[in-house]
């Protein structure tokens, strides 16, 4: 309950609103109760990062597998990734944790992305390419969440330009994968 409430606060009001006191008030518990469970505000942030990542990574893994078989599209993967950082607050949370010196709270996000890529990979040279493609996609999604709208406006580009570029890059990666696997 606490993590669902923390995620709602993150999406509604931003990372600065995700405090032990605010989450406790939202779920009808005491500050002391949450302090006992999470240990600190940074513990809450770390748990929230894990909670958010767990929710998103499963959906992305499914979308990747569907795209490989032709059941899904590369755009589905791009949209899930970009939405995780933008609409679901992972970009704002990541930035907040870095700015407040809580960098180790990013570990669940980084570890989950690495585990997902390893799960989808097949070892060897292909994994290196998948790691590079993942890095590019995640950095594009993070950057877009933080300044994408303002930058696109400034450059007089459509708002979805970064998503479109990510889709092209990921489609090329999928085409490479299919060619190598005779799919």
Automatic annotation (TrEMBL):
Keywords: DNA-binding. It comes from the Bacteria. Coiled coil: none annotated. The keyword Transcription regulation does not apply. Residues 1-56 form the HTH tetR-type domain. SUPFAM superfamilies: Homeodomain-like. InterPro entries: Homeodomain-like_sf, HTH_TetR. Residues 19-38 bind DNA. Gene3D superfamilies: Tetracycline Repressor, domain 2. This is TetR/AcrR family transcriptional regulator.
């Amino acid at each position: 309950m606490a993590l669902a409430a923390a995620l709602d606060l993150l999406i509604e009001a931003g990372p600065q609103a995700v405090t032990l006191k605010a989450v406790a008030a939202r779920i009808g518990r005491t500050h002391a109760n949450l302090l006992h469970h999470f240990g600190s505000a940074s513990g809450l942030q770390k748990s929230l990062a894990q909670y958010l990542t767990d929710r998103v990574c499963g959906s992305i893994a499914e979308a990747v597998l569907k795209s490989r078989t032709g059941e899904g599209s590369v755009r589905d993967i791009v949209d899930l990734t970009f939405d995780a950082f933008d609409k679901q607050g992972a970009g704002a949370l990541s930035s907040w944790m870095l700015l407040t010196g809580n960098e180790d709270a990013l570990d669940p996000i980084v570890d989950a992305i690495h585990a997902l890529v390893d799960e989808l990979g097949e070892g060897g040279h292909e994994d290196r390419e998948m790691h590079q493609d993942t890095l590019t996609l995640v950095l594009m999604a993070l950057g877009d969440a933080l300044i994408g709208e303002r930058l696109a406006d400034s450059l007089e580009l459509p708002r979805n330009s970064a998503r479109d570029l990510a889709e092209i890059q990921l489609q090329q990666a999928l085409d490479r994968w299919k060619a190598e696997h005779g799919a």
